C-alpha cells in the first residue's frame, strides 16, 4: 500500500487540496480531523468541558466512531448516526482542538487511522500523520499559509455555507488553534522529518492543487 501524509495548520486548504490530489491519483482520501471533531461533538453534546481530561476520558467508552467510504467519499458516524455535516460547525473546531490535546483521545483514534492505511492507498490529512500515525509514509507534505490567508479562506467558506461570522473572530480562532495544536505535549503539529513544505499563501486554489499534484506524482513516480 502507498500512503501520502499531509499535515499543516487549520485552514491551509488541506482537505480541499488533499481530496483533489486523492481523486487525481485514485487513492482514498482520509480526513483525520473529522475523527477529533466527532469526539468534540459528543463531548459538547454531553455538556462536558472539552479541555478537561477528567471529564472527557470517561466519555470515550460511550463513543463508537466509524469511518465509511461511499464512492471513496468519507462519511463519519457517531454511535450509528451520520454526523458528517454536524462536525463542520465552527463551534466544533475548537472543541476538536481541545480534545485532541488529551492523550487518551489520540490513543482512542489511533488504530482507526493506522488500519485504514494498511488496507487502502491513502492520502491522509491531519496534524501528526507524517510524524506519528504514518511515519513511513511514501510522501510527506506540510501544507501551510499565512494566518490571514487561512482565516480569509475559512471566512469565505463559512459565509458560502450561510454561517454568519466576522473575519476578526475567524482570525482569532485560527491563531488560537495554531497555538493549541502546536503547543500541546503530545503529537504537536510540526514539520515531520522528510516532509516537503508547500506554502500556499496568495495562491488561487487551482495553483495550489496543481503544485501538490505535481509534487505527489513526482515523489510517487506516477506519470
Ligand atoms: O483538520 P481539522 O481542522 O478538521 O481538525 C480539527 C482539530 O483536530 C484540529 O484543531 C487539531 C485536531 N487534529 C489533530 O490533533 N490531529 C489530526 N491528525 C487531525 C486533527
Task: Please explain how this structure is put together.
The structure is a single chain. The protein is an alpha/beta fold. It has 9 helices and 8 strands. The strands form 2 sheets. Strands 2-6-1-7-8 form a 5-stranded parallel sheet, with helices on both faces. Strands 3-4-5 form a 3-stranded antiparallel sheet. Helix 4 packs parallel to helix 8 (167-183). The protein is globular, with a radius of gyration of 17 Å. The two termini are 18 Å apart. The model has no long low-confidence stretch (mean pLDDT 94). The chain binds 2'-deoxycytidine-5'-monophosphate. 2'-deoxycytidine-5'-monophosphate is lined by residues 10, 32-33, 36-37, 93, 96-97, 100, 126-129, 177, 181.
- How would you write the strand order of the largest sheet? 2-6-1-7-8
Structural class: alpha/beta
Whole-angstrom Rg: 17 Å
Helix and strand element order:
EHEHHEEEHHEHEHHEH
Terminal CA distance reads 18 Å
Q: Helicity range of the residues? A: 40-55%
Shape annotation = globular
The proportion of residues in beta strands is 15-25%
Largest sheet: 5 strands, parallel
Instruction: State the helix count.
Output: 9
Which ligands does the model contain, each kind named once?
2'-deoxycytidine-5'-monophosphate
Amino acid at each position: 500500500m502507498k500512503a501520502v501524509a499531509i499535515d499543516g495548520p487549520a485552514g491551509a486548504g488541506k482537505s480541499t487540496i488533499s481530496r483533489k490530489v486523492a481523486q487525481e491519483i485514485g487513492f482514498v482520501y482520509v480526513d483525520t480531523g473529522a475523527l477529533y471533531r466527532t469526539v468534540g461533538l459528543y463531548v459538547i453534546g454531553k455538556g462536558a468541558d472539552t479541555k478537561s481530561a477528567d471529564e472527557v476520558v470517561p466519555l470515550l467508552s460511550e463513543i463508537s466512531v466509524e469511518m465509511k467510504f461511499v464512492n471513496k467519499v468519507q462519511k463519519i458516524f457517531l454511535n450509528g448516526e451520520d454526523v458528517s455535516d454536524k462536525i463542520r460547525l465552527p463551534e466544533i473546531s475548537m472543541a476538536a482542538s481541545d480534545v485532541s490535546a488529551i492523550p487518551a483521545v489520540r490513543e482512542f483514534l489511533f488504530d482507526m487511522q493506522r488500519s485504514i492505511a494498511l488496507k487502502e492507498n491513502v492520502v491522509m490529512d491531519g496534524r501528526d500523520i507524517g510524524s506519528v500515525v504514518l511515519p513511513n509514509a511514501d510522501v510527506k507534505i506540510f501544507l501551510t499559509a499565512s494566518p490571514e490567508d487561512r482565516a480569509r479562506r475559512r471566512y469565505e467558506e463559512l459565509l458560502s455555507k450561510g454561517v454568519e461570522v466576522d473575519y476578526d473572530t475567524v482570525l482569532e480562532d485560527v491563531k488560537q488553534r495554531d497555538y493549541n495544536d502546536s503547543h500541546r505535549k503530545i503529537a504537536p503539529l510540526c514539520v515531520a522529518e522528510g516532509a516537503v513544505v508547500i506554502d500556499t499563501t496568495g495562491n488561487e486554489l487551482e495553483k495550489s492543487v496543481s503544485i501538490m499534484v505535481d509534487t505527489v506524482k513526482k515523489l510517487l513516480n506516477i506519470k
